[in-house]
Amino acid sequence: MAILEILHFPDPRLRKVTEPITVFDDALSRFIDDMFETMYDAPGVGLAATQVGDTRRVAVMDCSEDKTERIVMCNPRILRSEDEEIVDEGCLSVPDHYDRVTRATRLRFAAADRDGHEYEMDAEGLLAQCVQHELAHLDGGLYVDKLSRLKRERIRRKLVKAARQADGADAK
Ligand code: ZN
Predict the structure, then answer these.
(1) Which domain, by its residues, includes 88?
(2) Is 32 helix (H, G, I), strand (E, B) or coil?
(3) How much is the pLDDT for 163?
(4) pLDDT tens, 69-116?
């Protein structure tokens, strides 16, 4: 297993729309293991392939307290959702920033597991929020898209500056 590099906003690779998975092989399974390891290491509760520069339509999640409820979503889609709430949200690709966004409170989604077996699941609260967040990633979206242009630009400038400083530190 390996820890993958997580891309940061405004990296253009985060805007790629992923392609549906048609082959469920060992290579995909290894990639999913790497995604879990990367997500737990970060630490985060969800990670989409887009965030590690891959265009396969897969995301992983674990919203449990004790990190024992791994969920793999290949080719996920939301079947229905209901109610809305304003929640605090963050993203491993937008480090050190949190903001309030509107998300559906409850939803039902369908996806395939790493072996290609289709399943459906009900989600609410943090898990429902996470499903919506990861699905947006798979279509090149980020939660900062839901914020005002002014806020998004402020975050962008901060992260570009931070990346420059990190590059400078590496060079020394
Ligand atoms: Zn994210």
Answers:
(1) 12-171
(2) helix
(3) 92
(4) 999 999 999 999 999 999 999 999 999 999 999 999 999 999 999 999
* Backbone torsions φ then ψ of 47, nearest 5 degrees: -150, 130
CATH number at residue 93: 3.90.45.10
In a domain, 2, yes or no: no
Expressed in angstroms and rounded, the spacing between residue 142 Cα and the centre of ligand 1 is: 7
Among 103, 104, 110, 108, smallest CA distance to 82 is for: 104
Count of CB atoms within 10 A of residue 39's CB?
Answer: 26
Dist. CA 90 → ligand 1 center (Å): 7
Give the distance (Å) from ligand 1 centre to CA of residue 27. 23
Q: Compute, in degrees rounded to 10, the torsion defined by CA atoms 35, 54, 135, 95.
A: 70
